[in-house]
Amino acid sequence: MGATAAVLERHLVMYRRLWRGSVFSSFVLPVLFLAGIGLGVGGYVGEIGGVGYLAWITPGVLASTAFQTAIGESTYSVMGDFKWVRSYHAMYAAPVRVGEMVAGRLVYILLRVVVAAAVFLGVTALFGALRSPWAPLSLAVVALVGLAAAAPVTAFAATVEHDSYFALLFRFVMIPSALFSGVFFPVEQLPGPARVLACLSPLWHGVELSRAATLGVFPAWPVWAHVACLLVWAAAGTAWAVSAFGRRLRD
């Protein structure tokens, strides 16, 4: 635990020096997006599932922001700490175990995701977009979404040598997930094969759970099934990350 805390502290110290660069993407942009789409477009859309479009889209934007933040924090900085800064090599010589490096990194990302989500949730409450007393549970949901996204992407970043792979990740994974995981419209409107792909995404499970918490409705699947899918993504990704970190440090 001591080494994990030290790794976490290192990431927090780095973030303390760079936090201004993330304010817009983590806090301001989601709120502006929610106001523009939820209020502007919502005036034309009307209601979905018996609630206004603003209230319907809020949990989707919340989960999507957590998903994108987790991916963003798991790409360039991870590869850079291996290839350019070589801080993981320094940790390995300290010695810090590989599992402690991964755990410290993932805990840092969870803190980033939950803090951003808490601010976002507070702002949306001022818009009157939260319809259920269970809304604070959405913070636990976005933590799961963040872990399910960050763990496999961290593993992937530890295996690549060039940042061009991240452009492919953003273009063919992150953006399609944000567009077709029920954030902006029900996945039931998609063709059958596309619905299957949407259900494979951790973001869809996060959107369904967040919407259940903020609106007080039942999700598409039982709650335990959504949670189990997110935990499988997180566990498999963490195991892959530990393996990838170990191989990279031994090479």
Automatic annotation (TrEMBL):
<keyword id="KW-0813">Transport</keyword>
<feature type="transmembrane region" description="Helical">
    <location>
        <begin position="165"/>
        <end position="187"/>
    </location>
</feature>
<dbReference type="GO" id="GO:0140359">
    <property type="term" value="F:ABC-type transporter activity"/>
</dbReference>
<dbReference type="InterPro" id="IPR051784">
    <property type="entry name" value="Nod_factor_ABC_transporter"/>
</dbReference>
<dbReference type="Pfam" id="PF01061">
    <property type="entry name" value="ABC2_membrane"/>
</dbReference>
<dbReference type="InterPro" id="IPR000412">
    <property type="entry name" value="ABC_2_transport"/>
</dbReference>
<protein>
    <recommendedName>
        <fullName>Transport permease protein</fullName>
    </recommendedName>
</protein>
<feature type="domain" description="ABC transmembrane type-2">
    <location>
        <begin position="21"/>
        <end position="248"/>
    </location>
</feature>
<keyword id="KW-0046">Antibiotic resistance</keyword>
<keyword id="KW-1133">Transmembrane helix</keyword>
<dbReference type="GO" id="GO:0043190">
    <property type="term" value="C:ATP-binding cassette (ABC) transporter complex"/>
</dbReference>
<dbReference type="InterPro" id="IPR013525">
    <property type="entry name" value="ABC2_TM"/>
</dbReference>
<feature type="transmembrane region" description="Helical">
    <location>
        <begin position="51"/>
        <end position="71"/>
    </location>
</feature>
<dbReference type="GO" id="GO:0046677">
    <property type="term" value="P:response to antibiotic"/>
</dbReference>
<dbReference type="InterPro" id="IPR047817">
    <property type="entry name" value="ABC2_TM_bact-type"/>
</dbReference>
<feature type="transmembrane region" description="Helical">
    <location>
        <begin position="223"/>
        <end position="245"/>
    </location>
</feature>
<keyword id="KW-0812">Transmembrane</keyword>
<keyword id="KW-1003">Cell membrane</keyword>
<feature type="transmembrane region" description="Helical">
    <location>
        <begin position="134"/>
        <end position="158"/>
    </location>
</feature>
<comment type="similarity">
    <text>Belongs to the ABC-2 integral membrane protein family.</text>
</comment>
<keyword id="KW-0472">Membrane</keyword>
<feature type="transmembrane region" description="Helical">
    <location>
        <begin position="106"/>
        <end position="128"/>
    </location>
</feature>
<feature type="transmembrane region" description="Helical">
    <location>
        <begin position="21"/>
        <end position="45"/>
    </location>
</feature>
